[in-house]
Design a protein that fits this description.
With about 250 residues, the chain is of the alpha/beta class. It has a single domain, classed as HUPs (Rossmann fold). It contains 6 helices and 13 strands. The strands form 3 sheets. The protein has a 9-stranded mixed sheet with strand order 11-10-9-12-8-1-6-7-13, sandwiched between helices. It has a two-stranded antiparallel sheet with strand order 2-5. The protein is globular and about 65 Å long.
């Protein structure tokens, strides 16, 4: 099984976010970056499970500049066989999808997997765009994947229950919680990652369809009011007159 896993860089969830250049640019100074958890914990680990069961090779691809190399090496330490980095700033989802599709179009990948979204942008756009550019079927937000030859059976959460879909490979899949369990790279994997190939390729001609106008932080949380559980009248009064539904 020849599998491509899309890996992106994201700020650690404990990072304090700030912006520069009149709130038009994310300030990366002193930010700890990690592999986007949906890409790592679910897409990459499930791809490795498939390889371990059925054989094959797992390649990761990242659109980014040299500062992405540490998170790529972590993916290699977890178990990916090799990695590719498209040497370009991932300006928007369409540009990123174009770069992934351009690399993948003639490589014979049977599965292209990625997380359902990135934790910094939450756009959930790249997977469907890659599928469209490659003319492949796409299943989004899959929580389970089983393979039987060239047939993929996937489970997805649906309103009030669960949806089961089937499709033929090759296929693009965005992965959600439930697809796999997080793996921690061991020392052997970390050492092996140093010698695994990380190929850097130049970007293809591609366009960006969107641009950032400005960023803003959510409003700070207000003070918490603690109400005596015996004082229901006060609670009702506050719910009527002060509580706000966000």
């Amino acid at each position: 099984m020849n599998i491509l896993v899309c890996i992106s860089k994201a700020p650690d969830t404990t990072t304090k976010i700030s912006f520069t250049e009149n709130n038009t640019k994310f300030d990366e100074d002193k930010v700890q970056f990690i592999v986007n958890p949906y890409d790592e914990w679910y897409a990459l680990v499930r791809a490795l499970e498939i390889k371990e069961k059925d054989g094959g090779e797992v390649t990761t691809i990242t659109v980014g500049e040299a500062d992405h190399d540490p998170i790529i090496r972590k993916a290699l330490a977890i178990g990916a066989d090799k990695a590719v980095r498209v040497n370009a700033h991932a300006g928007d989802a369409f540009f990123t999808a174009q770069q992934i599709a351009n690399f993948a179009k003639d490589k014979g990948f049977e599965l292209i997997m990625l997380g359902k979204e990135t934790i910094n942008y939450n756009g959930s756009q790249v997977g469907s765009m890659v599928a469209e550019l490659l003319d492949m079927p796409f299943v989004s937000v899959a929580s389970k994947l089983e393979l039987n030859g060239s047939t993929a059976t996937l489970n997805r959460d649906a309103a009030g229950g669960e949806e089961v879909v089937e499709g033929e490979l090759p296929m693009v899949i965005s992965c959600a919680k439930g697809m796999a369990e997080q793996r921690i790279p061991n020392m052997r994997g970390i050492m092996a990652a140093r010698s695994k190939p990380l190929e850097v390729v130049e970007p293809a001609e591609a366009e960006m369809l969107t641009e950032v106008v400005s960023y803003s932080l959510p409003p700070e949380k207000g003070d918490v009011k603690l109400i005596d559980p015996e004082n229901m009248d006060e609670l009702v009064e506050l719910l009527h007159n002060e509580a706000k539904v966000i």
